[in-house]
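Hey everyone, long-time lurker, first post.

I ran two proteins through the pipeline my lab uses and got sequence/structure pairs for each. Pasting them in order. The first:
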Amino acid sequence: MLPEIPAEEIKRNYMSLYHSHILQLAEEGTVTYNQGQELIALTERDEQLASIQNQLMR
């Protein structure tokens, strides 16, 4: 069972992700972001980067 996380902490983390990371990742083409539906999806570019990272970690 997951511990309950206070709503204020969730909001703080959401705002940090939104303002600091999601928009930058979308600008770089790593993710697509639909603000109206609050959906984030990986792009093909992110899958390529993950593949390269996995090869480097071997």
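...and the second, right after it:
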Amino acid sequence: MGATMWILALLGVNLWSLALFAWDKSQARRYGWRVSEFSFLLLAACGGWPALKLGQRLLRHKTRKQPFGRQMNLMIGVNLLLAVTVWILLSTEAGLPFPDTPSKAPNKPTTHRFFQSVGG
């Protein structure tokens, strides 16, 4: 999946998250069917946390629910840690050890130096 597809997917998740958050706010005012906090946390884990945080501020929704707030902040931390880890692994030469990547270590004899000096 190319970078453009990842950006479009994140944009879609964020738009959906904000729309769902606004709908939940309107349902809360009408005492209607609500979206579960688990669903919002799942959207946050999938990358929709910027829109959910923005929705919290703009709509003043789910700001008093402390367990939800802590869990949302945890999802943000996990997302950022994962993004930094992936960025570091992809941007350094060390990266992930893939089997088809040739080793940069010089070829060394497999026998120990002691055995070479003895003649074995």
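Reply from user beta_strand_b:
Welcome! Quick read of the second one: The chain has four helices and no strands. The chain has a mean pLDDT of 81.
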